[in-house]
Structures are given as structure tokens and as C-alpha cells.
């Protein structure tokens, strides 16, 4: 599904990724781990077309993201849901409206929005919070809304970049459990994090990056540095 083929990305004199080769198959749950500055976020930005590699190829379902036209990036991103540490919900909209807005931007019709938003909120365990505003929700609940918003287009790939960074351990584990649940529906999940205990509890594939290069790639592995 995703293939990095000898990808290098630099920012001035800093090499974020160096000759990185990685393949992720459809339906996998992959924890991408490493210290801050290891290259995890750069890899995420390359997948969604926010950055372009200096050399190498990035294929998503045979689409060469490294050379995709700017005009086609919005269509690529409809296949991909993204969740960040910085949640950025619309503060003046309810949980329902935050998810609905993501669908409306993609020009989904109103009957589709009314049918699908309650299903998505149910999936993330927030059916009873549909009419709540962000300031009425806990940090964990807000992150669940962010995940629901990322699922609005039924993506085949969900990228989670440090989604538990601002949460306590209980809420963090709840978010990980939700990501595992989403993965079980067939969605490929890539979790970028430096939360060692959480990664070791998942017991799925772990890819460790250090200084822009993969140093470990383990099935049902652990966070190794």
C-alpha cells in the first residue's frame, strides 16, 4: 500500500530522512517510533504530500506522491485521515458539526452527512457528546472528535502523529484502543510516537527511526533504541 524507495529529505544542512526504504501493507498497524527530531513527522508530511522528497519515490496504491500534481493532492488526501497532537477543533462548533464540516468541505451531500456523522461518533464512543462544544469536553474526548473528523471520508489510511502527547496515561491508552479498533475495520494505521509503554502494549509492528534512518523493523516488536 505504501512504499518509500530510497527517500532522502533535507532542510538546509539538516538531513531529516536519508535513503529510507519502507513498505507498509494494507490493513497493517505500524508504530513509527523514535526520539524528537528522528524523522517521524517528516515521513508523515511526505505521505500526505505536504513535503516533497529530494530523492526517491513514495508510492501510495501505485500513486507516486513524490511527483503528484499540486492540484491532485486534495484527492489523495481524501484517502488519508490525519490526527495530530494539536487537535485544532473548531471551537464554535459541536462535535457533530466538527465532523460534518469535514464532510461538507469535501462536498458530501446533506443526506450523506446526516446519515454518516452519527455512525462515526458512535464508532469513536461519542454518540452522547454530539451536541457538546470543545470547551465542554475532556482532552481525550476532543481527541476522539479529531479522530472522528479524520474518518469522515472513510480513509483507507489513518496517520496519527503523536495523538496522545497532551493526554494523561488513561486517556492516552483509550485513544490507542480506539486506533486498534479502527484498524480492525480494515483501515491501515500508522502511529508516530515516542511513548514507549504504549507502543510496547500494542504488540504490533514497530519501526524505529534514528537520525532519519530505520534502525529496527520488528513484527510484534517493541520500542528499541
Output the keywords.
225 residues; alpha/beta; Rossmann fold; 2 domains; 6-stranded mixed sheet; 4-stranded antiparallel sheet; 32% helix; globular
Q: How many strands, which pairing sense, and closed or not: the largest β-sheet?
A: 6 strands, mixed
Q: Roughly how many Å is the radius of gyration?
A: 17 Å
Q: Domains counted in the coordinates: how many?
A: 2
Class by SSE composition: alpha/beta
SSE series: EEEHEEHEHHHEHEHEE
Strand order of the largest sheet: 6-7-8-3-9-10
Q: What name does the CATH topology of the largest domain carry?
A: Rossmann fold
Give helix % range. 25-40%
Distance between the termini: 27 Å
Give a short synopsis of this structure.
This protein is α/β, with parallel strands linked by helices. It is built from seven helices and ten strands.
Description:
- The chain is 32% helix and 28% strand.
- The protein folds into two domains: 1-79 and 157-225, P-loop containing nucleotide triphosphate hydrolases (Rossmann fold), CATH 3.40.50.300; 89-154, no CATH class.
- It has helices at 40-47, 73-77, 95-105, 110-123, 139-150, 169-184, 196-202, and strands spanning 2-11, 14-24, 29-33, 55-60, 63-64, 80-84, 157-161, 188-193, 205-210, 213-218.
- Strand 4 (55-60) and strand 5 (63-64) form a beta hairpin.
- The model has no long low-confidence stretch (mean pLDDT 91).
- The chain has a six-stranded mixed sheet, sandwiched between helices. A four-stranded antiparallel sheet has the order 2-1-4-5, with helices on one face.
- It starts with a strand and ends in a 7-residue tail after the last strand.
- Helix 3 packs across helix 4 (110-123), helix 3 (95-105) packs parallel to helix 5 and helix 5 (139-150) packs parallel to helix 6.
- It has 225 residues and is of the alpha/beta class.
- The radius of gyration is 17 Å and the shape is globular.
- The chain is built from seven helices and ten strands.
Amino acid at each position: 500500500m505504501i512504499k518509500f524507495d530510497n527517500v532522502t529529505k533535507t532542510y538546509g544542512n539538516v538531513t531529516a530522512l536519508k535513503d529510507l526504504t519502507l513498505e507498509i501493507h494494507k490493513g497493517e498497524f505500524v508504530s513509527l517510533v523514535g526520539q524528537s527530531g528522528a524523522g517521524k513527522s517528516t515521513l508523515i508530511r511526505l505521505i500526505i504530500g505536504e513535503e516533497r522528497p529530494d530523492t526517491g519515490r513514495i508510492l501510495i496504491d501505485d500513486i507516486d506522491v513524490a511527483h503528484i500534481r499540486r492540484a491532485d493532492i486534495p484527492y489523495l488526501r481524501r484517502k488519508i485521515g490525519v490526527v495530530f497532537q494539536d487537535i485544532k477543533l473548531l471551537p464554535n462548533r459541536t462535535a457533530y458539526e466538527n465532523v460534518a464540516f469535514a464532510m461538507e468541505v469535501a462536498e458530501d451531500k446533506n443526506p450523506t452527512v446526516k446519515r454518516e456523522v452519527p455512525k462515526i461518533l458512535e464508532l469513536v464512543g461519542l454518540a452522547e457528546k454530539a451536541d457538546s462544544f470543545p470547551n465542554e469536553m475532556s482532552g481525550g474526548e476532543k481527541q476522539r472528535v479529531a479522530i472522528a473528523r479524520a474518518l469522515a471520508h472513510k480513509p483507507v489510511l489513518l496517520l496519527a502523529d503523536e495523538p496522545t502527547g497532551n493526554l494523561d496515561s488513561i486517556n492516552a491508552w483509550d485513544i490507542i484502543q480506539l486506533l486498534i479498533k479502527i484498524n480492525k475495520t480494515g483501515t491501515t494505521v500508522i502511529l508516530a510516537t515516542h511513548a514507549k509503554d504504549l507502543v510496547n502494549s500494542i504488540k504490533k509492528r514497530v519501526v524505529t527511526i534514528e537520525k532519519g534512518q530505520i534502525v529496527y523493523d520488528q513484527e510484534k516488536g517493541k520500542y528499541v533504541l
